[in-house]
Amino acid sequence: MAKLKWGMIGGGEGSQIGPAHRLGAQADGLFEFTAGALDHRADVGREYARRLGVPADRAYGDWQEMLAGERTRDDRVDLVTVATPNSTHFEITKAFLEAGFNVLCEKPMTMQVDEGEEIVRIAEATGKICAVNYCYSAYPMVRQARAMVAAGEIGKVRLVVTNFSHGHHGDATDADNPRVRWRYDPAMAGVSGQFADCGIHALHMASFICGDAVEKLSADFASTIASRELEDDAMVNFRMARGTVGRLWTSSVAIGRQHGFDIQVFGETGGLRWHSEQPNQLIYTPVGGRTQIIEKGEGGLHEDAQRMSRVSIAHPEGFPLAVANIYCDLADAIRGQVRDGLPDASDGLRSMAAVHAAVASAKADGAWVDARPPMFR
Amino acid sequence: MAKLKWGMIGGGEGSQIGPAHRLGAQADGLFEFTAGALDHRADVGREYARRLGVPADRAYGDWQEMLAGERTRDDRVDLVTVATPNSTHFEITKAFLEAGFNVLCEKPMTMQVDEGEEIVRIAEATGKICAVNYCYSAYPMVRQARAMVAAGEIGKVRLVVTNFSHGHHGDATDADNPRVRWRYDPAMAGVSGQFADCGIHALHMASFICGDAVEKLSADFASTIASRELEDDAMVNFRMARGTVGRLWTSSVAIGRQHGFDIQVFGETGGLRWHSEQPNQLIYTPVGGRTQIIEKGEGGLHEDAQRMSRVSIAHPEGFPLAVANIYCDLADAIRGQVRDGLPDASDGLRSMAAVHAAVASAKADGAWVDARPPMFR
Amino acid sequence: MAKLKWGMIGGGEGSQIGPAHRLGAQADGLFEFTAGALDHRADVGREYARRLGVPADRAYGDWQEMLAGERTRDDRVDLVTVATPNSTHFEITKAFLEAGFNVLCEKPMTMQVDEGEEIVRIAEATGKICAVNYCYSAYPMVRQARAMVAAGEIGKVRLVVTNFSHGHHGDATDADNPRVRWRYDPAMAGVSGQFADCGIHALHMASFICGDAVEKLSADFASTIASRELEDDAMVNFRMARGTVGRLWTSSVAIGRQHGFDIQVFGETGGLRWHSEQPNQLIYTPVGGRTQIIEKGEGGLHEDAQRMSRVSIAHPEGFPLAVANIYCDLADAIRGQVRDGLPDASDGLRSMAAVHAAVASAKADGAWVDARPPMFR
Amino acid sequence: MAKLKWGMIGGGEGSQIGPAHRLGAQADGLFEFTAGALDHRADVGREYARRLGVPADRAYGDWQEMLAGERTRDDRVDLVTVATPNSTHFEITKAFLEAGFNVLCEKPMTMQVDEGEEIVRIAEATGKICAVNYCYSAYPMVRQARAMVAAGEIGKVRLVVTNFSHGHHGDATDADNPRVRWRYDPAMAGVSGQFADCGIHALHMASFICGDAVEKLSADFASTIASRELEDDAMVNFRMARGTVGRLWTSSVAIGRQHGFDIQVFGETGGLRWHSEQPNQLIYTPVGGRTQIIEKGEGGLHEDAQRMSRVSIAHPEGFPLAVANIYCDLADAIRGQVRDGLPDASDGLRSMAAVHAAVASAKADGAWVDARPPMFR
């Protein structure tokens, strides 16, 4: 089976997310790295793309050039990954979708809610795939959790509690480092800092595992380092459509937490816990029973959890392979087999609606605010 | 050195907290179990007290009888522990204080804020000790955390995050079990369920470690089991006097969490974590440095942490010995050496003010409410 | 019920094990600290005993004085704990047993195998209790493990693997510290260093949980710090009477391990794991099934595990309360209810036979040696 | 930069190790899957290779056909991976090396010591790369451990303790399953079962991290399931050239352990611990100091540890990316930059010598046996 052709915009040398996409696209041998516009400095980007094996004529200087170059080819790329600075996601994703390309967009998909709605409409109109990289949802044991909830194995979900808290921006003496500062500057990051950066991963996962949508929320934001305009710590309480109570804490000043993304889901007949630092295990407790450790690769897992694991039990699979799972599902989708669970434009839109709702709530002292995008109300 | 004489009210056979107090009072050989009114059934209580070694003439039928019996003796008990149902704590504590006894009261000290203020005034007026059993604060590594904060070892505290969440009331089919039901019935539990039961331990510890007081809060309460009038899950955001941001989650429906009491304290130059299920370790991360495991019993701990440990490093000391540490400090206090950190009536009062503030906030959709007792504003 | 009268020999101020015995004897209110000869310096010991509440006339200058003083009293102590330097255990234990006292002896019970056999015979002849403080066996979850094995819940035991490895003697610059040095000096420690000090706890626990006896062993000893005559690291392979394969590693130079005592038991239909640093949990995996966490205090535990726990689930109970469980069983035994599982002189003897066998094996390059005491062959 | 051309022998559909090699070779975009003889059933293997994207004319029916086909091409594959049944590794590796191919051989490289010596000589003579897939050595934090030891950060190494124990062959009712049985059948597995299968990974890692070679060993083997001719549990004590004491336990009947590969290294001034189930952390304790958690991706790691990590701190990287690190080093080596630490034929040879030594020792009741290959004595 011939490989699919893949192109990336952004993700240049030294970027944090670029390697994850290249590993994700290539690990399973499903995509050939065929085109790229990897850097805002045209020459640098072209040279880096060539170094990574992209043919010289498809190593582009910017996304506009790539769009122009690829749209006219018979062998155009099957998938474009957008991994540029956040504020450009909307424009690029829109342009490629409209030109008939399938797109995987990094989060956040857009900066504004109406932009998000526009992307949703364009994706529908063109019939093209518009996926958003909520890659944590593609860990095998996250899929197991989702499938267990869907199968009623913990009963109706009462409560979901999730945290995405790290301490990597906790050093005030490093706050002016440009790699840190932009995240708290509205000119670059938009209306929200830490919640938009990490919180929406946690919020997406709550919806993803529960199979439910956030309806309303109440937020408490704090900028614990005085020079920051945007929040570096946030607590968001929420309610989902089926009544589930939600609690989400996110922080970038939690010194000592490395990658503190975890989720706990409590239903009428059981509880589940998952932690991104030990992603190959899912902790399950049936009501009145003992806590059990469910291992990636054990017998009898739900289908999605099996499909998304490559090596045998207790051989850990990590973050890059979760990204690879997104690419596996994209390859299937491009070939016509759409997999349930691939995060798409509606997820990207819901996140943006939640970000704006949280900002509004935080400004209103925690007043409860509708978190749904207008088009989904 | 002769032992001090100790009496207990409540804590009868089969009670949960009674054994902890008996172990706590006796473990270090500081108190002799001298008097007791252990059960609301007079005969049962007398018989049980005698079985536990209390002299027959000081095995009382009820607290009034014990008060009458003890107040006239020359060898009256040096300390009375009040471990009766919550709604009686105020009345009994007040009576014994006024009669000149030192009291250790189980939490909550009172049901009402004004009652709490009254106890504070009586304790001041009589000069007697009125301690409240926030026993988690007497774990050696909690003391180490407090001392590190006080010494500036993590800088100004920006953020404190604490949880006290278990799942032992998560079974709806067991919700009518009287041992569970009363906690969610206002007639017995007062204005709050889970927050008043467990949340105030976490809130006390936040104040204790930070050396700071809660000023205002915003609460989101949920009764996830429909038959419950009071909350079984609560999220409380708060702010402390020195500006620290606080986040507190407490739940009794978090199925699979056994004793999920933990606290994280994040300052300008470091972070600390402590978990009650592994109480002999404190996790410390200096900003920009590696996470370190501080062990109970290691060299160089702060004085309080050393004093409150009995056996050598890595020999675990658990909950009963934390209670015993409270009794050690009480013995010192009775003999005139008042130890910093012994939780007292002002702590009991602050808790009750916070409970009422949280209830008011939850009813007002999370509005921010002053959490200070009137007398401390 | 009147308290039993308890006396201690050794365990003076600053000793490591003294506090554990005092807590153990007093925590449950079963024993009154009535007599003591606590220090080899007579005056120091008397003064310390009085400070701890021992009546002045029973604060003795040495064990001979205590023996003379107590044997003639009508109200003689019900139990004597021997916590003196190892080389004196035999002599003191023998003397008190022969005088009709019940004894709890610290390990090692003797230095020689024939001495051990003599103690066993004397205990039998006098009918007095001679217990040995293998206190780890009195943790509730160790009892649960033993009961599960006895009930066949993991099938025939194939394999037991246990470690007792710490790093507290790993600093060569501290090797001449008298508190460390004596353990590796044959003049004070006897034929074995680390194996006799810690290894025999692990070996006892293997026998205890499996309900089986060690038959033969092969040892590899190392003195990793050159100045040490005795071993600071040892590996012992063994076989038990019913064919179980055993593996035991013990070390005092394992820098970074604090209290690394753990045991794993693998049977035909399941496996168990327990770790002394988290003693309130037992990890159980049925063959072909998921790993489960068994919690101290959960419903349905075996009787011994229930009896030996004082406070509710997930409130940790630590080392001092394991020692207290030994004293609880001693109180019962003194009153005529002998509990299965109380470690006695035969355990002390088996340990000493194993120590001498291990030394012989290590000297013979790991040759397999009979580990049974002659009287049990 | 053009991709290198890669071929694989074995690793057919459903094999355990095949996916790890494909992920490893492709993840970083360094190798193109160009040729393969994947299955002992020629048609099945050809079809599977084509499905995986191998050109039809290089999808071979067996290794002989592949050797014949590739050796005459100008664009012959740059690297051949040998992932066939163990007993064929020698023959295939020899043939490809002699034909001038670079080879990555699965472990064990050979079944006999003299075969191993032959491979070493051929590799030297041809100047071709002969790597052996001790892939655990390519985890970033294993490299960090090795570099710390080399830099003297824990002083002279006194002791190394390693385990590779799982329970996946612990079910006697599954012992006749062909996927399990062959490992304990000398006709297929050779002289050793579990030690040759898993133990040699642990033994390699001990040498790898310590930068030292095993000199002699003493083994205790057990077949805990009666029908097994070869051992399913083994303990091996060893000594290294610089005097380090070694202890290695390996088991396949340790029910409940999933992937229990861990290593502890204790030196004069510090200790290190690493566990394959949490491979992104290295636990370090300086003598007299606190235990520290070293995280993959943190600042200041040794060069190899940095180079072998792809995504930022606390984003876990797992087993497939450790294999990918082997392929990265192979790509560098093929292009002329030989990396220190790539496991090669001498490692494969040393393992086989250790296996035969352990078997001999076990048969001689644990007698100490020279574990070095004759050519390295």
From TrEMBL, chains A, B, C, D:
Signal peptide: none annotated. Residues 5-134 form the Gfo/Idh/MocA-like oxidoreductase N-terminal domain. InterPro entries: Gfo/Idh/MocA-like_OxRdtase_N (IPR000683), Gfo/Idh/MocA_oxidoreduct (IPR051317), GFO_IDH_MocA-like_dom (IPR055170), NAD(P)-bd_dom_sf (IPR036291). One of its GO terms (molecular function) is nucleotide binding. Gene3D superfamilies: Dihydrodipicolinate Reductase, domain 2, NAD(P)-binding Rossmann-like Domain. Residues 142-272 form the GFO/IDH/MocA-like oxidoreductase domain. This is Predicted dehydrogenase. It comes from Primorskyibacter flagellatus.
